[in-house]
Amino acid sequence: MMRISMSLPKKLLSDFDEVLQDRGYSSRSKGIRDALNDYIVRYQWMNEMEGQRIGVITTIYDHHYTGVMENLAEIQHGYREEISASMHIHMTDKYCMEVIVVNGDVNQIRDLTEKMMKLKGVEHVKLTSTANGESLDPEHSHAHGHSHVH
Prior knowledge:
Blueprint: H1 10-23, H2 28-48, E1 52-62, H3 68-77, E2 83-90, E3 95-105, H4 106-117, E4 122-131, H5 138-141
Antiparallel strand pairs: 1-3, 1-4, 2-3
């Protein structure tokens, strides 16, 4: 075992402690180990995705933060091919949520997600995705533009 010390904002630590208590953890260290594992697994999963994907990127940001809305818009304009739709939700006085539907090459989707994650003022970004159906539905994979009514 390695021992580390770290600095955290008071609110983050108290929120974390609250979750640990709710979940019945007896030790903060064990909780942090599990949280780190979860983070690593999620990142590796995002990195291992391949091919064409359809999905949703959920972004929560502080709209008072200078330039954050412009920065988000500018990044998204670079991925017009991959972005099918987006919806804006005003959560609180401070926070907005953007739900972005993406469809395309996973490398592009991953780049978009990571660029938004790095922005100051963005609190949370999560990508949920699945294969985009080309591979799920062989009948349609060669028949672009034809819709079948069943």
